Amino acid sequence: MLRGFATVSFYAADVKAAREWYSKLLGIEAYYAVPSAEEPAYVEFRFGDFQCELGIIDAKYAPHQVGNGPSGAIVSWHVDDLEGELEHLLELGATLNEGIVERGNNTGFRTASVVDPFGNLIGIMSNPHYLEILAGLKV
Questions:
Q1: Which of 62, 70, 78, 112 has a CA-to-CA distance to 135 between 20 and 30 Å?
Q2: Count of domains in the chain?
Q3: CATH number (domain holding residue 84)
Q4: How far apart are CA 5 and CA 99, in angstroms?
């Protein structure tokens, strides 16, 4: 049975540049790097309410072709301010993949997506269901 996302992996030809870009986006430093922080082939961040893992892997290890346009599944991360976060991503150098779209008849589900400078798709969304689950976990 699928239980939830554990790690999302993105690929980049320049892992150090990707680490710097994602550090700016997330507001934290990567906590893990191998084989070394100076010459990483893989870095990882933990962030958000459930400490989701985002791994950046050197593109030479990808099991598929990387670098010929946007690629990968669109994993949508919940954000509290969809417009503000979309603007933040674009200011950091991401390019718009799909602007803000209302999903469902005024249910509060709204999405947008961008392409990071390394060709990975990033989805963001306002997700009332996420907020309901989060509220239920707080005691």
A1: 112
A2: 1
A3: 3.10.180.10
A4: 24
